[in-house]
Amino acid sequence: MNGGSQIHHLTVSSGSATPGGLVLRTVSVCLVLAACQRTPALSVGPLDRPEGIAQLLGLSARARIERLGAHGWSGLSQLRVVSGERHDLLEETLGMVADGRGGRHLIHFTSHAGNESRAEGWEAYFLSGEYLVRPRYGPLVRRRPLGDEVERASDDLVGTGRGYWEVLGRFVQPTVDGEVKFEGRPAVQVRLMRAAEPRLFEEDDPAHAWRQTIGVDLFEGELLVDRATGVLLSERYQARYRSRRGEHDLSTEITFHAQVEEIGQVPPVGVPEGVTVVDAPARPRPLLDRQRLLEGLASRRGEAP
């Protein structure tokens, strides 16, 4: 590609706000980002520096929807872990569909190769203030979302790449490699390769101390960043690394690919016909009921006869 050295920084002013995880069994990473109703500006870059990549990967689901409008996002992850004679392969299917009108469909399914009994995961719909969620093989349960539950679940899905970067990013060197087209949109192409020397390990969380034992044998990846909005359109990683957890030496291989789909062409999100939906059972709340009763009595006592 030509002209790659000229594209190192993206700054995109936002227009009007649009209405509206990968959980690794061996490497546990959690991404919870604060969502906002309106973000005044998006500054992504420089894309040839680690901090620019971390910022790019950390963009919240809501911010992506505000800038791209209606779109889908899908990802597939494979995590193979070897410890002595033990082998395990975790496959994850991830997805988010946002219709730009507030509706969302979220999917996170997992399976272990050769063991169908360990197939797990969940699926959820967010429609008109209602949250319908189910385990992989259960009925949809209709209830109200708990706080920012929808945003946290969405961020965990689209933040999968950020989770990988938190673990392996200090071993990776990004390089801007010009522009390409992605579904007809101009996109900045960023190559990710194993750095000649890893950057300094700076985490002080005791739960992450094991990351200091990591040695990366392979890391190859590619990011495509929307030129108009600064949103990540496609991400692809392949990595192989060694680590030690407690008394166990682990060898881990990761492959991951995710991309944005059907920008501006997503129909309104809805529950498919024939899918069973049940209401969440009412739970007794004696303390809350008593407080409401007492407040009602106090209010009536203060009223004029």
Question: Would you give an account of this structure?
Answer:
With 305 residues, the protein is of the alpha+beta class. The chain has one domain (4-301). Helix content is 17%, strand content 43%. It has helices at 50-57, 61-68, 149-158, 160-168, 286-301; strands spanning 10-13, 41-44, 71-83, 86-98, 104-112, 115-127, 130-135, 140-143, 172-182, 185-194, 215-226, 232-245, 248-261, 277-279. The protein has a twelve-stranded mixed sheet, covered by helices on one side. Strands 1-2 form a two-stranded antiparallel ribbon. The protein is globular.
At a glance:
It contains 5 helices and 14 strands. The chain is α+β, with helices and mostly antiparallel strands and 305 residues long.
Biggest sheet: strand arrangement: 9-10-11-12-13-3-4-5-6-7-8-14
Amino- and carboxy-terminal Cα gap? 83 Å
Q: N-to-C SSE series?
A: EEHHEEEEEEHHEEEEEEH
The biggest beta sheet is recorded as: 12 strands, mixed
What percentage of amino acids are in beta strands?
A: 35-45%
Contiguous uncertain segments of 5+ residues: 1-9, 11-42
Oligomer: single chain
Overall mean pLDDT score?
81
Query: Number of helical runs?
Result: 5
Using only CA atoms, what is the Rg?
22 Å
Global outline: globular
Tally of individual domains: 1
Helix content: 10-25%
Output the structural class: alpha+beta
